[in-house]
Amino acid sequence: MTNTGKIITYQSELDYLSKCILESPRRETGGNLFGLWTPFGIPFIHYVVGPGPKAVHEPTHFRQDFAFLDKNADYLVKEHALHHIGSWHSHHSLGLAEPSSGDTDSTLSGMKECHLPSFILLIGNYRHGKSTVNAFRYDSKGYYVKLKWVVLDGDSPFRKTYDNMHGDLVYEPSGEPCMMPLDACKLADDGQLGRQERPVFAPGYWLSVAENRKEFAAIVKFLKAEFDAVSIFQVDDATVEVRIMDSMVPYKFVFGAAFPKEAPKLLALKSKKPQCSFVPEWTTEGMSLSEAFIHYFKSIRL
Ligand SMILES: [Zn+2]
């Protein structure tokens, strides 16, 4: 079994997200996620909050109504001990089904401000009359992974109680839900209730070896000393991307299954074309992997 993490919620909360996404096909919409973490570190969304009356909806930007979020947060914590574990927004009909570099920046800086070790970001999309939603989990080191959905049947036990009690504070989307099949899995399909303190890598992938993880940490440390906005995204169990957002042309290094036999792939973040005028030859001879990377990096001419 290979997966890179899970997220749990109820069908009612996915239906709520779906309705919100479907009613806004051309402008961003969004909201917040309330819930808890299981003892195995899996985020569990119990209740989804929609956009407040003063939220800003633009084609490429959503900003929540903070007074609305605060009031909801007060009640959800006080009455149900549910915490603000993440946020969501829809990239509607845009191609982007994952966080933009701006989304990653603002998520990481928000986490830093609130001293949160983990935070969830859901990105919704509108696709020909149907909705879809992808889940991402950030950690405070700037690492983020895509999560698989564990969907529990039926309604969240908090949905009806809370909506009845605080009808004036609840955003009610119109229409019917229509969610495309999600990237889903079962809670206990690895026999361990999804225990997941560490990212999981495929056997044979370089980061499945402890020694190489130290080398990777040294590479990331080096890049973080050079740039402010460095984040690490685990695409799947044999691909990790290091994204550098604050250079003139945002780009990423992709460490795929062929690494370290081949160089990490250098790609621009906004297009698939490498943006460099000179790429040196990749060699690890006589060097540790981090030394080889740093040597390589310093010879690249963008
Ligand atoms: Zn976004």
Strand-helix topology:
Blueprint lengths: L5 E5 H12 L7 E8 L5 E7 L6 E3 L2 E3 L2 H15 L2 E8 L10 H14 L3 E10 L2 E10 L3 E10 L4 H9 L44 H17 L3 E7 L2 E6 L6 E5 L9 E4 L20 H11 L3
Parallel strand pairs: 1-3, 1-9, 6-7, 9-10
Antiparallel strand pairs: 2-3, 2-6, 4-5, 7-8, 8-9, 10-11, 11-12, 12-13
Helix pairs in contact: 5-6
The chain binds zinc ion.
Zinc ion binds next to loops.
Bound molecules: zinc ion
Nearest-integer average pLDDT: 90
How many whole angstroms does the radius of gyration measure? Answer: 20 Å
Q: Could you give the order of the helices and strands?
A: EHEEEEHEHEEEHHEEEEH
Query: Into how many domains do the coordinates divide?
Result: 2
Backbone structural class: alpha/beta
Word description of this protein:
The protein is an alpha/beta fold and 302 residues long. It folds into 2 domains: 6-169, Cytidine Deaminase, domain 2; 206-299. Helix content is 26%, strand content 28%. The chain has 6 helices and 13 strands. It has helices at 11-22, 66-80, 101-114, 157-165, 210-226, 289-299; strands spanning 6-10, 30-37, 43-49, 56-58, 61-63, 83-90, 118-127, 130-139, 143-152, 230-236, 239-244, 251-255, 265-268. The strands form 2 sheets. A 7-stranded mixed β-barrel has the order 1-3-2-6-7-8-9, surrounded by 4 helices. The protein has a two-stranded antiparallel ribbon with strand order 4-5. Helix 5 packs parallel to helix 6. The model has no long low-confidence stretch (mean pLDDT 90). Zinc ion binds at residues 89, 91, 99-100, 103.
